[in-house]
Amino acid sequence: MNILNLIRIAFKALQRNKLRAFLTMLGVIIGVASVIAMVAIGQGSKQSIQTQLSSMGSNMITVLPSSNVAGGARLGGSSVQTLTIDDVKALQKQAANISFISPAAISSGQSIFGAFNWPTTIYGVSPSYLDIRQWELTDGIPFSEEDVRASAKVCLIGQTVVTNLFPNGESPIGKIIRFNNLPFQVIGTLAAKGQSSFGQDQDDVILAPYTTVQKRILATIYFRTIYASAINESASDAATDEITAILRKTHRLRNSDENDFQVRTMAELISALSSTSNLLTILLTAIAGISLVIGGIGIMNIMYVSVTERTREIGLRMSIGARGIDILMQFLIEAIMISITGGLIGVALGITSAKLITIFLSWPTLVSESSIILSFAVCAFTGVFFGYYPAQKASRLDPIEALRYE
Amino acid sequence: MSKKILELQNIKRAFIMGTETVHALRGVSFDVMAGEFVTIMGSSGSGKTTLLNTLGCLDKPTEGVYMLDGVNVGGLSRDELARLRNRKIGFVFQSYNLLPRTSALENVELPLFYNSSVSYDERKQKAIKALEAVKLADRLDHTPNQLSGGQQQRVAIARALVNEPVMILADEATGNLDTRTSYEIMALMQELNQVQGKTIVFVTHEPDIAAFSTRTVMLRDGKVVRDTPNENIRSAKEALASLPHSDDY
């Protein structure tokens, strides 16, 4: 009795009762499809949460000058100036876990346009700052590296500044505003970001090339801060170590020296992010498990009924020479065929419904390969596991009794 | 030609039902030669069914020796018995036992599925040949519910023939059929026996049917009470011809 024959026998037996085979399959189909769709929704939401958190700057790393001791009194952070453009260049060149980096020279002052004026803060940054903060422009263009080199007097202004300097609704683009009496041409307006988590108005800002702010306003070669973004949240810690190592080198610190800078990450945001995604994963795994077990029990149920219903068939097969193992294999293969076919249909249905959910409900979904492989493997396993008991029962029937079974 | 197909020596079979022991067979001995058409007769409770199960290798005797085509059945395992049933015995049942929703051809092919020495093409050819032998070559694709009782039984006979067994074992094969169809089946059996030389063991309780065989073994209370060759074999074909034509209902 070869396996090909057994597969043919099992296939013909299933063909003989298509509706029953389909109903049995339904449990598996729904199980697998729901797992794939659920995981797709979960992954999709996870990704969109991740994108949102990233836009809040969850992968942002801040480098500040460190505290220092002056005459026995410990001075607070930023009390000394240690960060220079050489640090920024070294980091740009050497740090592998950083995707963007921008220095920041910061100054407060009064901005003036015509009859209107407003106290605000100017950030002297590089063009990458917009990438780090994931900040969009609503109008105009960002300043370029060329503007940085030329210490150009151009700026981007936040929405709070727009409202206060241009209350009549005219477009600020191309207008000349003054900051601490230095004229700047407005070349773009920033999208509204609202308050930061510390209650600070993030839109109350003017962005300009750092060279302009350093030379023309502050007259310094130091930066208040260096902003960088790690390539992703999980690389934050690695990036921190990298930055520390590089800066220690550029600052020529000896092993016994304390850092003259500090590196800070958004640890709180990162842990919130990972706990959210972990919770989603656990929840979805639980749903997955339950639906597949129900599908498996469905298989067992129908196979069990099927064995009883087909007792005479089993008796006949035995009387014409089927061995116990042949009967066992036939029913087992039937169960596996049902679960695999159901699994395949379920995968197709799951992917389709995930797509439909995105199209009609516009929920973000992401069909992951691992969910397909896992649910398919589990459903094949349930086929064997739940098919075995009824198959074994069938194979142990006594042919005489089975033939006379009514 | 006269090779011993069956050899039964003092076959006993006892069942234990609770505290009681029921002796279904109390020492049955007879031989069947190749080419014989034997009917086994007896009223219910005579041990007929138990003997049939034993002959069909579905059951093993408690005592005694049963040789089927030179093989001692007594010492075989379950799987070896299954193999023996597949190669040496063709069963024909009272209730046909065809697989529903399955074509005649596929029903006939069934025993060959359990014989791995038969290839796919051979299987189909053999099945067609067997169906031709029972004159159903034009009904290959019909399912059992599209066939009459007599035709269904002929499909079952084709299924019994397909593995070229040494013996056809029929269990009340005409029990569910009317007189005319019974005679048709018996005519077919006689043809298989006389023309193709098939050995047939036919279990029945109808003396009418026994008249078509070459020998009758009568059982009572688990013992052979009579074992006589049939001097005057009736031809089923002639019997069929003598039936009044208006006999359809």
Give a description of the structure.
Chain A has 406 residues and is α+β, with helices and mostly antiparallel strands. Helix content of chain A is 56%, strand content 18%. Chain A folds into two domains: 3-52 and 273-404, no CATH class; 60-265, no CATH class. In chain A, the strands form two sheets. In chain A, strands 4-5-10-7-9-8 form a six-stranded mixed beta barrel. In chain A, strands 2-3 form a two-stranded antiparallel sheet. In chain A, helix 2 runs antiparallel to helix 9 and helix 3 crosses helix 8. Chain B has 249 residues and is α/β, with parallel strands linked by helices. Chain B contains eight helices and ten strands. In chain B, strand 9 (215-220) and strand 10 (223-229) form a beta hairpin. The longest helix of chain B is centred in the C-terminal third of the chain and has 16 residues, at 179-194. Chain B starts with a strand and ends in a 7-residue tail after the last helix. Classes of the chains: A alpha+beta (406), B alpha/beta (249). Chain A binds chain B through residues 1-2, 5, 8-9, 12, 16-17, 312-313, 315-326, 399-400, 403, and chain B through 53, 56, 58-59, 78-79, 82-83, 85-87, 91, 93, 97, 99-102, 106, 110-111, 113-116, 159, 163. Chain A: It is a multi-pass membrane protein. Chain A: It comes from Chitinophaga oryziterrae. Chain A: The chain crosses the membrane at residues 21-42, 279-306, 327-351, 371-389.
